[in-house]
Amino acid sequence: MPTDRDLHELLRQDDRPPALDAQEIIRRSRRRRRPRQLAVAVVAGAAAVSIVAGLGPVAGLFGQSVQSATSSGSLAGAPAPATVGPEDASGGSTSKSSAVSLNRCGDSLATGAASSAPLSLATEFADGRADAAFLPGSVTIRNDGSSALTLTALAQPTITLSRDGRVLWHTPALSLPAPVSVTLAPGESHRFAARVRPVECGTEDDLRQSFRGTLPHVPPGRYDVSAALDVIVDGRTVLVTGPATAITID
Questions:
Q1: Distances from the Cα of 204 to the Cαs of 6, 90, 102, in angstroms?
Q2: CATH class of the region 101-249
Q3: Among 172, 191, 21, 184, which residue's Cα sits nearest to residue 91?
Q4: Cβ atoms within 10 Å of 99's Cβ, excluding its own
Q5: Where are its TM segments located (predicted)?
Q6: What does the CA dihedral 89, 90, 96, 97 come to, rounded to 10 degrees?
Q7: How far apart are CA 79 and CA 81, in angstroms?
């Protein structure tokens, strides 16, 4: 049976603060914080997923923008499609000595310089009616030299209708058929089928890719029909012309 002294000693021990166990405190602290850390990790992970998911459409948008810029750059670096300007409105780039640019609607009738090759042109057209769609005819190129010539006509002859020295109509370059190559002995010739329209074109028609479809017909009277032709002879291009033929349109 405990004595009064024993009881007094026991009460003194209970009044003392308990001894602190550092390892046990750390262990319990970690146990309490683990759920909180896990919750924070889960929330952070969800936020990261949300951010990445939110950037998805934005990244796609930037991707499209970069792709579009690249495409635009490649297009900008690509050659532009050819266009017909005032200097080549008859159907292509032409030089000053080109048959298709020799005469223009409304201009004074031009005559080509003498050909540097022994070649000449002769036109043949019959009289016709002013309301006809076309008046048929022909153009003949002849070798006036003393040796055979192999030539390539770049296109069919360009025909010009004029009156009193003013151009009323000429063959649009876009309507010229394909080139042809021939070899002509001295004095030999080659004949091209040709036609002329008894209508009057204007300056604006030469500024277009093609003539207007409703050109006014010329009034009855006397007119001149002439021809010009670009040919390649011995590797050089020469312009061949000839005298005009007078016709009556009624």
A1: 132, 11, 17
A2: mainly beta
A3: 172
A4: 30
A5: 38-62
A6: 170
A7: 6
SS3 state of residue 30: helix
Q: Output the pLDDT for position 73.
A: 30
Q: Residue 12 to residues 1, 4, 8, 216: CA-CA distances in angstroms?
A: 19, 13, 6, 134
Written as one letter, the residue type at 118 is P
Q: Rounded to 10 degrees, what is the CA torsion of 205, 207, 210, 213?
A: -30
How far apart are the C-alpha atoms of 86 and 102, rounded to whole Å?
14
Is residue 97 packed enough to be buried (19+ CB in 10 Å), middle (13-18) or exposed (0-12)? Answer: middle
CA torsion angle 90 93 96 99 (round to 10) = -50
Q: Where are the domains of the chain?
A: 101-249
Each residue's pLDDT, cut to its tens digit, for the chain (250 residues) gives 555 555 455 445 544 444 545 555 555 555 554 544 444 443 444 443 343 334 333 333 223 332 222 222 322 233 222 222 233 333 333 334 589 899 999 999 997 777 878 999 999 999 999 999 999 999 999 999 999 999 999 888 999 999 999 999 999 977 777 789 999 999 999 999 999 999 999 999 999 888 998 999 999 999 999 999 999 998 999 999 999 999 999 9
pLDDT of residue 3: 55
Tokens 């000429």 locate to 170
Three-class secondary structure of residue 87 per DSSP: helix
What are the two backbone dihedrals, phi and then psi, of residue 151, each rounded to the nearest 5 degrees? -130, 155
The pLDDT value given to residue 209: 81
Helix, strand, coil share of the chain (percent; to 5): 35, 30, 40
